[in-house]
Write a structure and sequence with these properties.
The relative contact order is 0.12. The chain has helices spanning 20-55, 68-90, 92-115, 127-144, 164-170, 174-226, 235-253, 255-277, 285-295, 298-308, and strands at residues 2-4, 10-12, 61-62, 66-67. A hairpin with a 3-residue loop joins strand 3 and strand 4 (66-67). The chain contains ten helices and four strands. The protein is mainly alpha-helical and 309 residues long.
């Protein structure tokens, strides 16, 4: 954390100022997310690839009866089974979600502590003890559902759960804490949700268009076949499988519901920023920080996704 020259010594608080447990958990979440996404992508691709040999109009025989192209389908479907088995063993999606929840929970509580947000407001006695207790309670709940606590394996805990930067920010005046929180937390989150909304909107457009482009030739071939204008087209199955894979991928990435959810969160944060910068007083600061952290929590986004869908 660095100081900005000025009468109140405004502070810059970044992710680097958070404890080592956050960085470790965040890194695990990113790695497991990548693994889960790549596994699903591979399964869908191999399922589509397995339909291609049957759709091709030519065959490559070896030794009079062995179909060389069909070996491609065999390999693809075998790959699907292997990938599915490995995914069920490693449970990357589950570990991704648990570690993401843990990382965001740690980050949120660190911010609350550093800027006197509820339940670590200015009037509380022994805030460090309360912080440690609340954090441990939340992490214990995650351990119950399968989160792997890495603290015993971490060679360097980075000085504990409360960093020097967190203590330094907590000791600042209310105006400094408010400015730092609005700039480095609230506005940064608004920008993140705006970027993700734009990414989700582009993804929804791309994959919806791809599904339509793959379905159209399948429809044409099916109509020709229905009216007896053409022989049976095995290629229809490949187009259908490809469209189904794109649909499954689009649903897995949740592009459409995330556009709406991220838009609502960004709007709520905009309103909260306006209040914090104008009418909000120190008396209501702790509750406002608590509400802001609730808005940016992954659980709130998931709730919006489910209900907006």
């Amino acid at each position: 954390m660095t100081a900005i020259p000025g009468p109140l010594q405004s502070m810059v608080f970044r992710s680097a100022d958070l404890p080592a447990l956050f960085h470790h958990t965040d890194a695990v979440a990113v790695a497991r997310q990548r693994e889960a996404v790549n596994s699903t992508r591979a399964q869908l691709f191999l399922l589509v690839l397995g339909t291609v040999p049957a759709a091709l109009p030519w065959h490559a025989q070896v030794g009079g009866s062995f179909q060389l192209l069909d070996l491609l389908a065999v390999s693809a479907y075998t790959g699907v089974l292997i990938t599915t088995f490995l995914a069920s063993r490693r449970k990357a999606k589950s570990h991704w979600q648990l570690n993401r929840s843990a990382a965001e929970f740690i980050k949120s509580n660190c911010w609350r502590y550093a800027v006197h947000g509820s339940p670590f407001d200015s009037g509380i006695q022994h805030p460090e003890a309360v912080f440690a207790s609340r954090l441990e309670e939340g992490l214990q709940e995650l351990r119950k559902v399968g989160w792997d606590d890495p603290r015993e394996r971490m060679a360097d805990s980075g000085g504990g759960l409360i960093t020097a930067s967190m203590r330094e920010l907590r000791d600042k005046a209310f105006t400094v804490r408010k400015e730092t929180y609005v700039r480095d937390r609230l506005i940064e989150q608004r920008r993140w949700y705006r970027r993700r909304m734009q990414v989700s909107r582009r993804g929804a457009l791309v994959w919806s268009s791809t599904i339509a482009l793959l379905t159209l030739p399948a429809l044409v071939l099916a109509v020709l076949q229905a009216f007896g204008r053409a022989d049976s087209f095995a290629l229809t199955g490949s187009f259908s499988a490809a469209a189904a894979a794109c649909l499954a991928w689009n649903e897995m990435r949740r592009h459409h519901p995330l556009v709406s959810a991220h838009s609502l969160v960004e709007e709520d944060l905009e309103n909260m920023q306006a209040a914090m910068e104008t009418t909000l007083t120190e008396r209501h600061w702790a509750a406002a920080v608590f509400e802001t952290e609730r808005i940016v929590s992954p659980e709130h986004t998931d709730w919006l996704v489910r209900h907006r869908t």
